Amino acid sequence: MARFSFFKASTTTLAVVAGLFGLLGEAAPLKRATASITALSMTQIQSFRPFSFYAAMAYCEPSQILAKSCGQNCDANPTFEPVASGGDGIDVQFWYVGIDPTLQSVIDYFLTICDRVPLLTDGDFFLTKLNSTLFPGISSSIEVHSGFADEHAKTATSVLAAVKTALQKSGLKKVTMVGHSLGAALSLLESVYLPLFLPSDITFKMIGYGLPRVRFVAFYIQWPPLISDWVDFEKVGNQAFASYIDSTVDLDHVNNKEDFVPTLPGIFLGFHHPQGEKHIQDDNSWLDCPGDDNSDSKCTTGDVSNIFEGELSDHDGPYDIVTMGGSTCASS
């Protein structure tokens, strides 16, 4: 089994180290899209808006969410009914579950903040099989980032209980999982976990923002440590995991302009995005980029070919009119 080490650092240091990887260049995507790139209508763009606000809302303290006193993020979805919220934003990622009768969905959200929350206490991780108790019946060929698996396990049963309560209380038959950045990666695990414990008539949707690459394709890499601590580059799982996601999860992931986080880790390391990219252009129009890692210059992979062509400031948005981050959590 391959083992990796990454050094934990501030966002600035992340940009420098990622830049070293970017200088090596990107290998050609393994699968090119055959469908055409199409523009989203304003109506389609605005349909993401409620979920974008839900993504931003998870940067707020659980007490703010439960009291619906998180400013514009709470105000944007006035019919939202919080059911449960937890985490401390340091050792345990923020999460919340609630009911949106307007969207006819139970909302499930995770947040992990890369420069505040070390996912791995010692900076090391490896690919590990999914916990058979939390993921019964899942093929043993599926392996995931051990740090993400450990973080998911901390809240899995609490989140499941809250989702069951929300479904029972509301009578709804749909669960929507929303995540930004590392939270989007964790939501991928949730999108595999929840359906195993909920009735078959429940449908699931995931919407991610600034999602890092998740596919580990074709080979494992033994990466020798060059310095004592290394940055976690947000990998989720192996090819079997990625294939499972592609075949079972209804997924949209939105990338903003020249945000370079979705280009990490590099394709040359064997990592690829799942399908479903929506790429926000410099003129704020949105394009649907078909296939995995579409190399057209209008899509993230073609637009940001190395770290020096990217802008970290684009990572928090705005996604349409919504910017991620705790600064938007002030009470109105």
UniProtKB/TrEMBL annotation:
Keywords for this protein: Disulfide bond
A biological process term (GO) from this entry: lipid metabolic process
UniProt keyword annotation of Disulfide bond present: yes
Entries under Gene3D superfamilies matching the protein: alpha/beta hydrolase
Catalytic activity: a monoacylglycerol + H2O = glycerol + a fatty acid + H(+); a diacylglycerol + H2O = a monoacylglycerol + a fatty acid + H(+)
Domain Fungal lipase-type, residue spans: 121-214
InterPro entries given in the database record: AB_hydrolase_fold, Fungal_lipase-type, Sec_MonoDiacylglyc_Lipase
PANTHER family registered for this protein in UniProt: ALPHA/BETA-HYDROLASES SUPERFAMILY PROTEIN, FUNGAL LIPASE-LIKE DOMAIN-CONTAINING PROTEIN
Family: Belongs to the AB hydrolase superfamily. Lipase family. Class 3 subfamily.
Protein name per its UniProtKB record: Fungal lipase-type domain-containing protein
